[in-house]
Amino acid sequence: MRVMVVIAGALALAACSGRAKEPSAEEQAALANYVPPFVMSRLDFGGVVERRFRRLDVNHDDKLTRNELPKRLVARFEQIDRNKDGAISNEEWSAWMMGRFDAQDINHDGTVTSDERERARELHETDLPTPAEEPANTIAPRN
Q1: Contact 50, 131 (CB under 8 A)
Q2: Where are the domains of the chain?
Q3: Cα 131–132–136 angle (5° rounding)?
Q4: Where is the composition biased (Basic and acidic residues) (predicted)?
Q5: What local confidence, expressed as pLDDT, does residue 127 receive?
Q6: pLDDT score at 138
Q7: What is the third-level CATH fold of 39-133?
Q8: For residues 28-61, b (16+ Cβ closer than 10 Å) or e, as one string?
């Protein structure tokens, strides 16, 4: 009888002390402060540029004025407004933003990687926005 009790106790102890669930790859990465590599194609960035223009154009007149730009970009207004009409069109915005993308695409393969972004940061260039930084619903309905 004692042997049966000892065996039952051992089995119960073994069942309770089972191994902890192995963390998922995402959990392991988070624990290690892992940042996945960044890769953005020129095509994907074009979508980000369009969504950002629509989000900034709060009065929906298809142009950006100084008061619609983020404070960090107001100093670059003259540079972006290529035709000097006092407003930034979608075309001017896109040309300027895509120029920033192209400047960071060191090997000219149509993508910007983590290494290329880091190099641009080291050169004190403004970082490129990513799709993840854009709100989910950025295009307001037009009247």
Answers
A1: no
A2: 39-133
A3: 85
A4: 106-127
A5: 56
A6: 45
A7: Recoverin; domain 1 (1.10.238)
A8: eeeeeeeeeebebeeeebeebbbbbbbebbeeee
